[in-house]
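Q: Hi! Curious about what Dihydroxy-acid dehydratase looks like structurally. Here's the sequence.
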Amino acid sequence: MKTPEELRSHRWLGVHDLRAFGHRSRLKQMGYDRADFAGKPVIAIVNTWSDINQCHAHLRMRAEEVKRGVWQAGGFPIELPAMSLSEPFVKPTTMLYRNFLAMEVEELLRSHPVDGAILLGGCDKTTPGLLMGAISMGLPALFVPAGPMLRGNWRGQVLGSGSDSWKYWDELRAGNITEEDWDEIESGIARSYGTCMTMGTAASMMAVAEALGFTLPNASSIPAADANHSRMATASGRRIVDMVWQDVTPETILSPEALHNAMVVHNAMGGSTNVIVHLIALARRAGLPLDLEAFDAVSREVPVLANVRPSGAYLMEDFWYAGGLRALMGNLREHLHMDSRTVADRTWNEILKGAEVYNADVIRGPDNPVFAGGATAVLYGNLAPDGAVMKPAAARSDLLRHRGPAIVFPNYDAMAKAVEDEGLEVTSDHVLVLQNAGPQGGPGMPEWGMLPIPRKLVRQGLRDMLRISDARMSGTSYGACILHVAPEAWVGGTLALAKTGDEIAVDVEARTLDLCVEEDELARRREAWRPPEPHYRRGWGAIFQDHIGQANEGCDFDILATRAPVPEPEIH
Ligand code: FES
Ligand code: MG
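A: Let's find out. The predicted structure is below.
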């Protein structure tokens, strides 16, 4: 147990000198009294609320509820706003900003008199951004997931975020629904605050945060609009104060075993491929090596048990009523490291005791899985020497072993135009290839990986075909999409050398992905390849392109992935 004099904030607030006098007088300027803060842990509430972040619209309320808990437990709460990465609104892609959010979190905590942190977020990149920053800073930190929104509803039909947008967009393009129907869907698909309620990056990453041990038990699946969510926020506020006294730092939570548990849960949830990038980045922040093979290996062992769209039938609200993540993890005991400790100061052995599933169709048992295994496959070959990823479960099964001619698009705009062209020479055998959509190329590795099926083929009723890119894909997307090709085209990966008409061979069972072009021809093309002009000459974009790593490395900045120490600020 720490003493008040050992608190980090003591250097700002507790000592008898002119500087500390200044700090205390400034707190008093805001109406606080010595009794509010003297000798108490200062808890930063890092809040990613904004007026244009639909998924975090409730986080101002939640911050107040966290404060209530911090006061109850004898801490001093201070809310620190951080960049809010609203997945749909922030362009060109939130992924361009994940590492900047992580930097902001780290520096907010470092530069202020803070002893511990509550991290408020959940919309896609906010979860990894908050955690990465907190891990690098190393102070006790507890994640309060924003939670999923309620189910969508249209004429009594349940609608899911993302998945049903793509689905009904195709139906509109095919002429199967009217413009009026489409407008009604717009009003029904998102009808409360909270994150996407399908198994997108948000739901996957919040579950992963819980499995890593960074949330209170069963926090990650509580619907945002449920009163349980408010109580979870307050309980988190109480707990973080004790975590400071006990010095429960991220380093004590993040172990190889915790990472394994996170990968198990990711697979059992049928989680987003984006988690792979984020979890590798998180692990490396903690100095723990994690690579793509680990995901493939875990995926072969662990069945998909969460029957949630897009892999399954239900939504996160149903998942909560069925018992939530605690119930799911209760069905995964044999795969989990049960002795890992969490921020709750308990092991999974203790947390999962008595965990019950209330709807065995939503949260399946190992004897009745949604998929027996193989939710994530990592492919290698001359087209992806450093790997590429795929969700076989979300693809038409005959495409898992396929050889066909490529149609290659050098960028998104060319692709978007071509797929709408009824004259495009394309059959269901073709492989659509998008270049220059990776970390450098996009820039920011946007979620373009689910290339639209050409309009001509949609009209013929085709809904899936093989697609390959160095982009990411939304977790709410589906189809035979091979993603994260590394190295990316922009830096001269083999993907940059592919030409329309080349044959591409994929064998998911064998985990291979090849461009069937002779080695000497490839060498000639490589010789002729010239690096593109950089996207940015100034600003954050320039910093991004100077420091961003490839997908298989987690897309972190090289200056952040290092474990080199940063000195505590001098207080003068
Ligand atoms: Fe925020 Fe999907 S838009 S989680
Ligand atoms: Mg998403």
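A: A fun detail: The pocket of magnesium ion (ligand 2) is lined by residues 87, 124, 200-201, 474-475 (CB under 6 Å).
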